Putative pre-16S rRNA nuclease
Amino acid sequence: MIHDAFEDFAAALPQMTALVGLDFGEKTIGVAVSDRIGAVATPLETIRRKKFTLDSNRLLEIIAGRDINGILLGLPRNMDGSEGPRCQSTRAFARNLSRVTDLPIGFWDERLSTVAAERALLEADTSRKRRAEVIDHVAASYILQGALDRMRHIRSS
């Protein structure tokens, strides 16, 4: 089930659960996973997009192998908060994904996540080639970590 409101997504999840975070792009899908207590997001891999069936099969393999209980997609809003074509693509991907899994699917505002990931990689003195290889799944971990932090705040209130 797709949850547009993050609070609804958080409420649909078990208390202690692992999540997968996705940075959905035109050519790639950055993938990050959380630990089972939902405290730390870790970059996992970048999927080179091909066809939806192949992409979703790889995601479902990751989900099955890591006991994931929720899917979080970064929503690439414009800087003014409006939704453009990239948001529409992300929402369409979520709708298609909801047809192949019963896991709750939520969204997290991903504005500037790639910028933050790029900055962190530059500070770590990562080569340009290596940055290009890992930027998407590092951005996915930034997206997922932001959501995990918010979820912890919601649950402690």
